[in-house]
Fold this protein.
Amino acid sequence: MKYIEKLQYITSDTPHLTHIEQVQLACEAGAKWIQYRCLSKTDDELLIDINAVAEICDDWGTTLIVTDHIHLNGQADIQGFHIEDMNADFITLRQMVGHDVTLGGSSNTIDNLIRLAKEGVDYASFGPFSITKARLDNYPVLGIGKYQEAIQKLKSLDINLPVLAVGGVKIYDIEALMQTGIYGIAVSGAINFADDFIEAYQDFYDAVKL
């Protein structure tokens, strides 16, 4: 089993903080897992950003995961990729990157969670939990009940897959979410747009780790 952090921080295209600034703040707050999610840059711009981000992560001992852009594998110090395409073929992607690279996938249905597990992902995000501005996709909101149902179904099939709640998760949601048996939480907006970024990250970390 690869190391999978229980609180996964995701960068985003925000008007007030660059991705590099977000990563620096997250690492200063104690982040051990950062998902660099930038969908607005060219490959050349991405590599400049990712190399700078990778250097920060290396300094802090933080795992760096890149959203999509799997074609950049080997061009920067990236530990893994998170693929948001819910129809992605992870058997083929695993063959592309090898077994040392961490692969995560997005899912919105229990059936897709099961497929991801069978295709060998190292972890899966499951969402959106509630309304979120981070993504424009029109996937249905899941709510607490769907997480309970998903974890029970995976257990009944003897599937040991780290599942993380994602999409509109607020600090006050975490206790109920963790009680469903999910592995952890992936968060972006609730930290990026908080009055105090570092305090918000640490509050999330404490809530997830309790």
Summary: Residues 7-209 form a domain with the TIM Barrel fold (CATH 3.20.20.70).
